[in-house]
Amino acid sequence: MADLGAESQEGRAPIIAVSITHAGFVCPRKQIPHGIPTNFGLLQAAEKALFLSKEEEEEVSKNEYERRNKSLFGEVHYKAFYDDFTIHHEQEWAAFFQHPMNWIYLHGACWVLMKLADIYYCRPALEECGEVVDKLSETAELLKQHITATDYLKDHIHMYEKLKYQVNIFQCVWLKKETVDVPALRDICAYEVKYLYSSSLDSSEQPNLHVTWLGLTFPPHHTPTVEEIYALPEECMLKLAAIIESEMPPDGHYVYGKEVQLLVCGNCNKQETALGEFKLCQRCNKVAYCGRKCQKTSWKGHKKVCGKTG
After folding, report:
1. 12, 78, 204, 288: which sits with the fewest CB atoms below 10 Å from its CB?
2. Model confidence over 35-45: pLDDT tens digits?
3. How far apart are CA 92 and CA 190, in angstroms?
4. Residue 253 Cα to chain centre, angstroms
5. DSSP class of residue 211?
């Protein structure tokens, strides 16, 4: 199957929903206003894939392999948007996202990139993951500019802080760097004490929070403050970096198995470029094909074993 981003160069990716932008309404089957990226529909499709409806999840579960469900299934859409955003129409997207009124689409783009980076990391495709995270970090900073430059709600500030926290986790914890990023580690701990730390629980009951790994002793029922975190000496952050390093697997990353592995066509041995690109035989849900032509070619031999167990 062709690259959705490149394929849409001959025309626009279809608009699948009504969106309100700085240039006006963007609607299905209507002329797209000037100033809207050529393939704005790719972002719509990618965001939709992040949040499948219950009916859509059931349909995916029925017709695809059990691992191809929920947001993983949308990788083909995430990648199509990412390629269009960074390669095919980079300047168009940059101009569109510079407008403050479009900040909500910038926020959606950030979460699409986050999910794509997560899939790449788990596969693992660490080089590709690092490239996506770098673009995510750049995009999140633009989102911060829009949010802080206007009178947005406190919840909107939290949106950015949550994104930045995830970016820092990628860069400081999952993707190894040659040098320790002390400010980013501080930001991780500060976010955790601000939003995730519970004063009603003992530190040992909050093992997934990096701030508890610092081994600091706080008074009972006391929630550490952001100010206390930023006042800690650099040695504390270097100690945390060493603990994180020791907790990582020997090969430096976690692998989540077959649910994020790409399929290979049962006829021509071509590998899909993203989850959801190839379809599985609807009868046995075991053999994948890159297209109808390969499925028909393979059927004569496949039908002898299709649906059999053992």
Report:
1. 204
2. 999 999 999 99
3. 36
4. 17
5. G
Q: What is the pLDDT of residues 113-134, one digit of tens each?
A: 999 999 998 888 889 999 999 9
For 23-69, what is the HEC assignment? CEEECCCCCCCCCCCCCHHHHHHHHHHHCCCHHHHHHHHHHCCCCCC
Indicate whether 218 pLDDT > 70: no
Which tokens sit at 302? 């496949």
Q: In this structure, what token pair is assigned to residue 123?
A: 């596969």
Report the distance separating Cα 260 and Cα 119, nearest Å.
6
* Residues 197 and 223: beta-carbon distance below 8 Å: yes
| Range of lowest pLDDT (65-74, 89-98, 134-143, 164-173) | 65-74
| Cα 97 from Cα 174, distance rounded (Å) | 28
Cis geometry, peptide bond prior to residue 124 (ω within 30 degrees of 0): yes
Can you tell me the distance from the alpha carbon of 169 to that of 208, in angstroms, rounded to the nearest whole number?
12
Q: Of the candidates 237, 223, 121, 139, which has an alpha carbon nearest to the alpha carbon of residue 179? A: 237
What single letter denotes the amino acid at residue 216?
Answer: L
**Beta carbons of 223 and 257 less than 8 angstroms apart:** no
Vertex 115: Cα angle to 100 and 207 (nearest 5)? 110
Instruction: List the one residue out of 92, 108, 88 whose CA is nearest residue 37.
Output: 92
Least reliable range by pLDDT among 179-183, 187-191, 254-258: 254-258
Residue 2: Cβ within 10 Å count: 9
The CA angle 177-180-183, to the nearest 5 degrees, is 120
DSSP 8-state class, residue 180: -
- The DSSP result for 247-261, as a single string, is HS-TTSS---GGGGP
Residue at token pair 């094909």: 289
Helices 126-149 and 103-122: crossing angle in degrees, nearest 10, is 160
